[in-house]
Amino acid sequence: MLLRRLLCLLAATIATTLSAQDLPGLKVTFTSAGKTDVRSDRLLALYVPAGQAPSPFLAAGPFIAKWEGDLQSPLRGTFKLSAESSGKFKLSLNGQPLLDGPGIKTGQLNKGANRIVAEIASADKGDTFVRLSWASKDFPLEPIPPTLLTHPADKELDAAMQRREGRLLFAQMNCAACHADAALVPAKGTGMPEHGQIAPLLSELGTKFKAPFLADWIHDPHSIRPHSLMPKIFAGAGAEQKAADLAAMLTQGATPKAGAVDLKLAPQGGELFANLGCIACHQRPDAEGKDAQDRVPMGHIADKWHPAALMEYLQDPAKHYPATRMPHFRLEEEEASQLAAYLLVNSRQVKRKALAGDAARGAALIVSGGCLNCHAGMPATTQPTLATVLKAGDKGCLSADDKARATAPDFALTSAQRASLKAFLATDLASLKQDTPAEFAERQIKNLNCVACHSRDATLSTWTKVDGEAKKLRDALPPKEHVEGEPVHDAPIPPLTWLGEKLRHDWMSKFIAGQIEYKPRPWLIGQMPAFAHYADGLALGLNHQHGLPQKEAAEPAGDAEKIANGEKLIGDAGGFNCITCHAVGDTEATAVFEAPAINFAQSAERLRKGYYHRWVLAPTRIDPDTKMPKYADPEGMTQLTDPYEGKGPAQFEAIREYIRTVK
Ligand code: HEC
Ligand code: HEC
Ligand code: HEC
Ligand code: HEC
Ligand code: HEC
Question: Is 185 inside any structural domain?
Answer without folding.
Answer: yes
